Amino acid sequence: MARPIRETPVLFGKDARLFEERMKNPRKVSKAERERVKKNYELVMKAATNFK
């Protein structure tokens, strides 16, 4: 039987400020990296739909 999902923790202080700053300024992703991720995603989805 699955364990219950715990409540999401609330961030305070320095952790909260760092999290908010990272959300406002996401990491830049190159076009090559984006294509690599898309290709991997498509492979996984293809395998998942063929798995029965």
Q: Can you summarize this structure?
A:
The protein is built from 2 helices and no strands.
Describe this protein's structure.
- With about 50 residues, the chain is mainly alpha-helical.
- It has a domain at about 30-50.
- The chain is built from two helices and no strands.
- It has helices spanning about 15-25, 30-50.
- The protein starts with 12 loop residues before the first helix and ends with a helix.
- The model has no long low-confidence stretch (mean pLDDT about 90).
Salient structural properties:
52 residues, mainly alpha, 2 helices
Summed up, the helix count is: 2
Distance between the termini: 23 Å
Low-confidence stretches: none
The chain-level structural class is mainly alpha
β-strand amount: under 5%
Binned, the helix content reads 55-70%
Query: Rg from C-alpha positions?
Result: 18 Å
Name the helix and strand elements from N-terminus to C-terminus, one letter apiece: HH
Overall outline:
flat
Q: Mean pLDDT across all residues, rounded?
A: 92
Strand tally: 0
Largest sheet: none
